[in-house]
Every structure is written in C-alpha cells, then in structure tokens.
Amino acid sequence: MEKKKTYVEDIERTLYDIRNEDRSSYKVEQGLTEQIIRDIAAKKHDPQWMLDFRLGSLQEYYRQSLPEWGPDLSELNMDQIVTYVQPDAKMAGRWEDVPEDIKDTFDRLGIPEAEQTSLAGVGAQYDSEVVYHSIQEDLVKQGVIYTDMETALREHEAIVREHFMQLVPPKDHKFAALHGAVWSGGSFVYVPEGVKVEIPLQSYFRLNAAGAGQFEHTLIILEKNSSLHFIEGCSAPKYNVTNLHAGCVELFVGEGARLRYSTIENWSRNMMNLNTKRAIVEKNGIIEWVSGSFGSHVSMLYPCSVLHGENARCEFTGVTFASKGQNLDTGASVIHAAPYTSANISTRTISKSGGQATYRSAVKVTEKAHHAKCSVNCESLMLDDISRSDTLPAMDIQGDEADIGHEATIGRISDEAVFYLMSRGISEDEAKAMIVRGFVEPIAKELPLEYAVEMNNLVNIELEGAMG
C-alpha cells in the first residue's frame, strides 16, 4: 500500500498582505544613477560628507559583482527598483498625528498597543521614512538617545560620522555598497555608560510600495556597563513584482555592556531580503541575537559578531521557515579576535511544500584568540519529501588552544510521533503543528511575549491547511 503523504497547504497571510493605496508624496525614478543618489541626498538635506559617501558607495556598487554562492539573484533588476519612496506624512511624536491609513496599518500590526503595555520607546517606518517616534521621558533624562537616523545625522552628526558603516563598509559586498548609496530611515540608539534600559525599545519597518526597496540603517551604541533590549519587526504586503530589502544594522557593544537584538522578519513572498547585520563586542561584553526569518522569496542573512575584547560573548538563537517558492539562506558568523571569547549558535530550520532552507555559518578564531570556545548547533526539519534543507558550516581555526564544536541534524517529521499523538485523540494536522511548535520552542521562549505570540501565529499560518 502506498504510504500516505502529508500535505500542508499555504493560506493567505491576510493580516500582513493588506496594502494601502500608494499616496507617496515623492519618489525617485526607477534604477540607480548618480542623479538619483543626488536627488535622495538633496531631499534628505544630507551634509556634504554624506553625499560624498553615497556617491563613493555607488561607484563601489558598480565595481562589485553579485555573489557567486547562495541563492540565485538573477530575478533582481535594479533598473526596475524604486530606491526612495517618501510617504505623505511628516515624522510625528504623537500617534494621533500619523495619517489615518498609515496609522491603521500599524494598529493592525499591534504597534501602539505594544507601546502602551511593554515598550519604553517605539519607531515606525513606512516605506523610506520614519513616520513616528517616541521614547519614555525617564530614559531621556538618563541620557538615552533613541531617534530616527535622519534626526541623528542632524543632531548628533559627530557620533554618526564616527560610526556610520564602519562595521559594514561599502566594499564588504555589492549590497552593502548599494545600502551606502541609497540608505534611508532606520533607528539610532545611544545608551550612556552604566545606564540599564530595563524595558525594550522597538522599531517596526513596513514596506507598502510595489516595486520599491527599503534600505533602513540601524546604528546602536552601548557604552561601558550599559544594557539594552532592542526589537525589530518587518513586514510587507505581497505584489507580483520584485521588492528589495537591503538594510544594514551596526551594533557597538562597549566593555561590560549587554545587548539583546531580537528580530522577526516577515516579508512578503515577492521580497528579496539581502540584509547585513554586524556587532563588535568589547571586553566582557555580550551580544545576544534572537532571529526569526519568515516570508520573502529569497533571503541572505548572516548576523556577524566580532568578539573584539577579552571574554566577550555571543549568543545566537534563530529559526527559519521556508515554504513553496522560497529559498531562505540564513545563519550566523562569529570572529574570535581576543582571548577567552565564547560563542553559542543554536538554530532551527523548517522547510515544506518544496521550500529550500539553508543554514550557513562561518566561525573564525584568530591566532591571538587563545582559549576561545564556540559551539554551533543546527537542527533542520523537513515536512515532506519535496523540500530541501542544507547545512553549510565553515570554520577557520588559526590557533591551537580553542574548543570548537559543530553539530547538525536534518530529518523528516516523525510518523511515529504523529501516530502517538493521534492515538491520544489529537487530529493529524494539530499533531503535526504541535511537533513543529515544539521544534521552534527554544527560539520562541527567547522572544518578548508579544513577539513570541507573533512567531507562533506565523508558524500556524504556515501550517494551516488540509491534510490528506
């Protein structure tokens, strides 16, 4: 008798796929030219050094070739991408002052409610500009700065100029260069020495325009012995044209400081998600990454931690869920550049309906990083026999005194486990959902409550459907 196959059908992502009418007040022409870069810089009133930086990045973009490894990016045609879309809204400090249609979008995504119940500050970006920003007054009194990047460039120019794209220089790769040329929006956070931000800050990025790109820049600086939890959310409605996300995140974690950076990326299935994230961690500092990758047609995302000071630490926890038509190439990288540094990478990848999920990691231990420790654990779960999962670790160990380990498991969902749960009166589809939720539970428990709920909802959306 032919073995019964399990089929999990996609359903419409109703909440995230609602789109607004395009009421942008300004947008540049499609494509990527020097004049477009000058138009963006003029619209944003960039100082001369930033315009020069953009133009230099554009030249670097044309010098660089597409990566020859990873997913196929041939569908991306920059001649058809609009790199700057200004929404018909001014930046507001009161939620009531945000235009009604934009406010409704963020209301549906739960942003204002989350601010009232569990956040110390919120930023909301719509297309290429931040439309709302707030921060609790007691944090301002302690010297914490949390604002959009354009405001930071005007009001804290020296700090921005010292740090901007120093961790991720435009020469790094083609899409870092693209970002340097057309970046817009994003968040700036500065936490002074010794200040503990007890309640999370959150930025949410929504791309509404079809055929557009979003290129927000996030710059976070933690001084000595400070701490912060920063949450980032992303989503977009689905269109039948390619959209592009090529943001950049730079995290500076000072001596003895602790930063947790949590992300749920839930782009639509027409999105190319080519994001770059990097942290540098000084002596006794800690960087914690919590990452969820859903949606998007193609993703290439590998948050990097540079453990620059003695006893610096990195914890990375991630989950990726790839379904039909998705090629999600995700992972993490760590550079041990000082003695007694340690890192722990733990990921879960799930693939179904022909989706392709790839875990890609890179661990480097320099000669001076004696007594470094690094543990890499990747578990992959395939929900059918037409999906694919790959694990591609790379390790460069340049010293003798290092303790490095890598463990990977790839498997199908257990028929025995499903049968056992069904024998206890649970339906087949719920049994399967329970197993998947249990599989991603180590990641969900690391997220703030409202984001754990969102991630579980996304898992349920991916799993709902008929079984037969």
Poorly predicted runs of 5 or more residues: 1-16
Helical amount: 10-25%
Let me know the largest β-sheet: 13 strands, mixed
Overall pLDDT metric: 83
- Calculate Rg over CA atoms: 22 Å
- Secondary-structure content class: alpha/beta
How many distinct beta strands? Answer: 25
Q: How many structurally independent domains?
A: 2
Strand content: 35-45%
Please report the number of helical segments. Answer: 12
Shape: globular
Amino- and carboxy-terminal Cα gap: 15 Å
Quaternary state of this entry equals single chain
What does this protein structure show overall?
With 468 residues, the chain is an alpha/beta fold. It folds into two domains: 15-414, no CATH class; 415-468, no CATH class. Helices cover 25% and strands 36% of the residues. The chain contains twelve helices and 25 strands. The strands form three sheets. Strands 5, 6, 8, 9, 11, 12, 14, 15, 17, 18, 20, 22 and 24 form a 13-stranded mixed β-sheet that branches. A ten-stranded mixed β-sheet has the order 4-3-7-10-13-16-19-21-23-25. Strand 3 (121-126) and strand 4 (129-135) form a beta hairpin. The two termini are 15 Å apart.
